[in-house]
Amino acid sequence: MTTTLLDRVREEVGKVVDPEIPVLTIADIGILRDVNVEGDRVTVTITPTYSGCPAMDAIRGDVAEAMERAGCVDGEVRTVLAPAWTTDWMTEGAKRKLLDFGIAPPRALGVGPVLCPRCRSDATHTVSEFGSTACKALVVCDSCGEPFDRFKEL
After folding, report:
1. Quick one: how many helices (H) and strands (E) in the chain?
2. Distance, CA of 99 to CA of 120 (rounded, Å)
3. 45 and 102 co-located in one domain
4. Cα separation of 58 and 133, whole Å?
5. 56/26 same-domain check
6. Measuring CA to CA, how many Å separate 83 from each of 31, 46, 48, 50, 51?
7. Which of 85, 96, 113, 128 lies most in the core, judged by the most C-beta atoms within 10 Å?
8. What's the pLDDT tens digit per position in 8-20?
9. How many structural domains does the chain have?
10. Hey, is 54 helix, strand or coil?
11. What is the pTM of this model?
C-alpha cells in the first residue's frame, strides 16, 4: 500500500506534543484542526487553546519540522482563532493521559467534583484559578494533602 503525502503529514503532525503538557499530542488536545493537500502544497491548520497561548510559537515550529519529515516541500502552518478552541475537542484518551500524568482533566460542562489524580478523592478545593500555565488552576486534595493542577474547562 502506498502512503500519500496527506497520510504522511497527518501521521507526523499528529505526533507533535504540546510543550506545556508533553504527554499530550496536539491531536489529543484538539489543537490540530486540519491537514489539507492541494497539489504539492500542504496546509496544516491549528487553533490555540486560548489566543495568548505562549506555546503556539513552539508548536508551529514543531509542526513545520514534522511536515518536512513527512516529505512536504511546500507547506504552511495556519493558525485560526475561530471557532475558539474548547475542552470538548480533547479526546477521552487525552483526559486519561492528563489524569495519569497528575493533572485533573476538564469536567463535562465544568460541573461536578474535581477528582484528585493521586488518590481519586473528590474532597478537593481550588487554591487559585491561576496554575502553572494559564490553562490550568491550582487545586489541593483535602484527603491526601497533595497540590495538583486542574485543566480548566472552556
Report:
1. 4, 9
2. 10
3. no
4. 15
5. yes
6. 12, 11, 11, 11, 11
7. 85
8. 999 999 999 999 9
9. 2
10. coil
11. 0.88
Instruction: Measure the CA–CA gap between 38 and 145, rounded to whole angstroms.
Output: 54
**Taking a C-beta distance cutoff of 8 angstroms, is the pair 46, 79 a contact?**
yes
Which cell numbers hold the place of 44?
Answer: 496544516
- Given a cut of 70, the residues of the chain with pLDDT beneath it are 1-2
Show the domain range for 28.
5-79
Of 79, 98, 131, the residue at which a domain comes to its end is: 79
* Geometric angle at alpha carbon 35, from 33 and 39, rounded to 5°: 155
The domain boundary residue, chosen from 26, 61, 79:
79
pLDDT in tens, 121-135: 999 999 999 888 888
